[in-house]
Write a structure and sequence with these properties.
transmembrane helix, single chain, 7-stranded antiparallel sheet, 14 strands, alpha+beta, membrane, transmembrane, 19% strand
Length: 401
Amino acid sequence: MKLKASLWLVRASQLEAVSALEGHVATGRVSPTDPSGWVAAALDAGDVSRLLPDRPQIQFLTTSETFAVVARSEDGERLAWRRNDGEGPALDSVAGMIASTFGGAPELVAAALLGTDPNINGIDFALRTIVDLPGRTIRPARLGRAPVIGYDGTQLAFDNTARLAGPCLCVAGRDGWNFMVPAADASWSVPKILAALRSLSSHEGQPVHPFAMWKLGDTALLRVDWAEGAAALAVLGPVWQTLGEVGRLDRERENRLIDALSSYADPSTVRSALAIVQETPGRSGIAEFLQAVGLPSQAAEILDMRRGDHVGAKRLEHVPMKAAKRVLAAPRKQQISAVAYLSLGAVFMVLGFLDRDSLPGVLILVLAGTFLMGGAVLWQVARAARRRASASTSAANCTSQ
């Protein structure tokens, strides 16, 4: 009978278990370390108890027709039971060890082992209704619907993007950072907002990499946009570590995050911070990671707040693209008026200069100066207004291409 899969429970840290399995097991996943000091590993492998022979452990091995339990107790005694063996001392010993290690009644554990289907999911589900097995985080947490977006570029680019993407709740942070929390009915998706912010930063010559974070149970999902069409993703918190080919992909994702954060922290700092946050659940671990890699830890605080609890936040409503283009048209009219004022001023200046020795000539020169000064002021006002409007339309155009 061909082995299908196995579930290995061992008293070890996640790092110890992964290190022991690498090179011996082709594919599998290892849970974060449980508060009790145990980990769970879902493997496509047979008996692996030899890899950590001095540790208490329990392994469930399944085939197409049956399953077996191989265990090592605290004092080193090896226990084994196959479902085909039925009731007896072997089952009592294995059930007793499971119950004493993870809490529960031995007779209920024995009944669950006898009655469950011969597959890992069936065994896992049956036992979790009786005892507190490690590896509960195997069940995926639901991604939060309200992300936090962080940006350390210019205030003008941030506000204009928030208005076009809105409605958004905006929070002024520390050290030049700004945060926005898009509303559920926001006009733009998060990737589109990040692309707009990154594009505006590149136009301004700033090495800025906007980021977004979503709540993910006791952890957070981080996305950093660092080049056109390139984004790095990372889970900040305890996660299941993968082995083999899938593990290689995880390491590639880690390398992309290192590239994305290269403007803020060196590679060794990012790797060290990732290793620490993967063992530290909750907001404190996320905040420490952000601070270590040069991102604002304040983002972790905002992520935990309810939408109405953001002190000092301002709400920016959505501005449609058509309205933004109308805003852009207004400075053009001001510029035309400024050119007219400057032209009239120049004409009056010439006429007044020709008759400068008479009182009318002096009055014409005064009038010319007034027109020239007014035209210059109007030109500067129109130029500033056009710059603000251009930032708005650039934010939209860079994501519509």
